[in-house]
Amino acid sequence: MYYVFRIFSRITTWIAIPALFAAAWFSIHLARADAEFRRGDPDSVARAIAIEPRNTEYLALRALELDYAGEDAAPALERAASLSPMSSSPRIRLGLAAEIRGDYASAERWLLDAARVDRQFEPRWTLANFYFRRENARAFWVWMRAALEVSYGDRRPAFELCWRMGGADEILSLAIPDRHEVMAAYLAITLDSHRDSIAPVAMKLARFHDSGDAPLLLAACDALIEANDATRAIELWRAMGYAAPTGVFNGAFSSAPLNRGFDWRAIESPGVTHSSIDQPRSVHRISLDGRQPESCALLIQVLNLEPRARYLLKWEVQMSGGVSLSGHGFQSGIEWRMGDQRAAVGPASTGEAAFTAPSSLAPLTLYYQRPSGQARAEGWIDLNRVSIERAR
Questions:
Q1: What is the pTM of this model?
Q2: With the CA atoms of 324, 327, 330 and 332 taken in that order, what torsion angle do they form, in degrees rounded to the nearest 10?
Q3: Which helix (H) or strand (E) holds 302?
């Protein structure tokens, strides 16, 4: 048994020694190639490729050097592509090089092959740009949509390229995938630079019912209100889950103002602060410390009204002594405004005034105007309830 073991050990040693020599030679071989490659000059890279001709990293750098030298890099790239059947990089470079030469058929073939082996963003984005330059709208939209489906990070260049190719309807229907992150990014871009295209994008984003989209959707609603687009502003407002804006929204101040859309907008000015009070009932308090401007808006809400119809505005309000001192000829300086119509808010706890709606989207503003001959008001105004209805 002992002799068998010794024979077996010798055989194993005889097998292992050549393997160790081979491994050592291979390590030295790779080290030599790597040392040449790291020198970085064209001759050293060429020697590295001669030592290790199947290294695609070496081939890629060699191709880049050939490009800079104005020489043909295609053979190096083609070899890199054949050695890396799942790599898009050499195929993209071959496609772009062919396009520069004017060989558009080869360019398309290589770029399509890059997209075949790599389903990520870069090959698809490169194809979209290729078809944009070739003015092939049909293929452009296909590949732009495919690129945006897997896109990440800053999508602005993609959206801007879309705007250079077509209009709002085409972009939304052909290029923008039904993907939340892309739709949100696209709405942000339209708000920034294509505000006339906001409504359909915002409506699509609203269908995701993501609470995190509220600031973006409210900004879109504001833009539609500013554009006097009542129908679509109301449609978006309701799609966000809010009640239809009929009369005064949040007239009992049961929730803090959103400062957007069809809710109250508390206007901050020096010397003016807003706060919500819940006890014993919901109240919106506006405090004036005497440093406020002589004339300033305090609170605004855009109302959905029938143009030229008569309405009756009613309110319940309390004022501190510093604002509502009673006395002969005293004016609080607080008034409601709608267009060029005004109604003073006096010391009484309730009041009403008739207004004619100037438009379908009519801003109702609570305003402070320092009365002539009086010092700036100091104190607070508590709004308990505000409502509006058609006058009979």
A1: 0.79
A2: 0
A3: strand 295-304
Give per-residue pLDDT as tens, 322-370.
Answer: 675 443 344 678 999 999 999 999 877 899 999 999 999 999 999 999 9
What gap in Å lies between CA 335 and CA 342, rounded to an integer? 7
Three-state DSSP state, 352: strand
Quick check: 84 pLDDT over 80?
no
* Cβ atoms of 295 and 370 closer than 8 Å: yes
Distance of CA 340 to the CA centre of its chain: 38
What CA–CA distance (Å, rounded) separates 386 from 351? 10
Instruction: Give the Cα separation of 201 and 207 in Å (integer).
Output: 10
What is the Cα–Cα distance from 188 to 6, expressed in whole angstroms? 78
* H/E run at residue 301: strand 295-304
- State the Cα–Cα distance between residues 342 and 331, nearest whole angstrom: 14
Domain 53-118 bears CATH identifier 1.25.40.10: yes
Pairing of strands 295-304, 350-356: unpaired
Task: Domain ranges for the chain, please list them.
Answer: 53-118, 265-390
In degrees rounded to 5, what are phi and psi of residue 19?
-65, -40
C-alpha distances out from residue 300 to 159, 174, 221, 295, 365, Å: 35, 40, 16, 15, 4
Q: Label residue 21 by pLDDT band (50, 70, 90).
A: very low
d(CA 169, CA 176): 10
- Distance between CA 185 and CA 199 in Å, rounded? 14
pLDDT digits (tens, 9 = 90+) for 26-63: 455 445 445 544 554 455 555 555 555 545 555 555 55
Q: Is 74 left (phi over 0), alpha (psi -120 to 50) or beta?
A: alpha
At the topology level, CATH places domain 265-390 in: Jelly Rolls (2.60.120)
Higher pLDDT pick, 387 / 42: 387
Distance CA 183, CA 180 (A): 5
